[in-house]
Every structure is written in structure tokens, then in C-alpha cells.
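Sat 14:20. Reprocessing the chain from the morning session after the first attempt stalled halfway. Input below, unchanged.
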Amino acid sequence: MLPENQFRAGPMKESEKVQFWLMKSEPSVYSIQDLQRDGKTAWEGVRNYQARNFMRDEMQVGDLVLFYHSNADPSGVAGVAKIAGKAYPDAAAFDRKSRYFDERSTPEKPLWFLVDITFVAAFKEILPLEKIKQAKELEGIMVARRGMRLSIQPVSEAHFKHICNMAGCRLPKDI
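Finished this time. C-alpha cells:
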């Protein structure tokens, strides 16, 4: 078993602990409030290979997610979600009318995948990126690195818990 604050790369066995992630969305496209209203959504349209690989190869049902509002004023963590299903092909890649269409991806040989996420909690206020960068306890978190634009990122358990504490979010015990 790994130390509880260490990210575990590779597929997770059922007996192992939950993994933690940060997923970015522009609030004008899909916000934490939209997820709260909908309860569940498919995280479609990811067109970065590393982010795709995280969803396809490493995310497991029950993993927890920091829901991050990007290109916002301020940008920052807006709430918490949970991975609700294993990765499956992103059908938008096959749809010529979709902005996520990719002619290289077919139903027989899908190139792009997505996961479903469910709402857990919305923070009372967004925890701004600037506060995340200033917190000594969050040193090394990927989202605070200069030029880090990856839309899906692994987060350590210690960083996840500290962000939740900073935001005053008490998570239900059953998650």
C-alpha cells in the first residue's frame, strides 16, 4: 500500500485507495453549478492524449475530483465531483456535426474516451489559483506550475484534503 499522500500511477486494484484528480472546465461551458443541477455528466471533448490516458487508463469509479473553473475571474477550484463510471468512447468524436469531431476516431477504433462524473459538493466561494499557489502545503501541485494547461491532472490525497479544508468543505463520509 502506498503512503496516503502519494499519487498511484497505473490501474487501481479494487483493494487500493481512491485516487484524486483535478478536472478543468470553463464555467461558461460547464460549471460546478451545472453539475449540481444535472447531478451527473459525461466529461466529453477531451482532446489531449495525456488527459485521455488518465481517464482511459487510470481513473476508477469512486475516485474524487477537484472541479476547477478555468478562464474565469478568478480561476480556481469550485467544488468536488466523483468518477461515476469507467471510461468509454467519446461519441462526439464520431459526430461530424460536433465541435469535438475527429475523423481519425471511429466506433471500431475509438481514439478519444470520457468518464461520467457526479456532483459531490460546491464550494461557497471559488478557491482562487493565487491562494493555491501561496499555500506552502500545496507545494508541487500541478495546477500551480507555470504553463500547466493539462485539463486533467492527478492530485495527491494530502493536496486534495488541504484544498477542501481551505475552502471550508466537509465531504460526506460515504464518498
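The helical segments are 32-38, 49-58, 129-134, 157-166.
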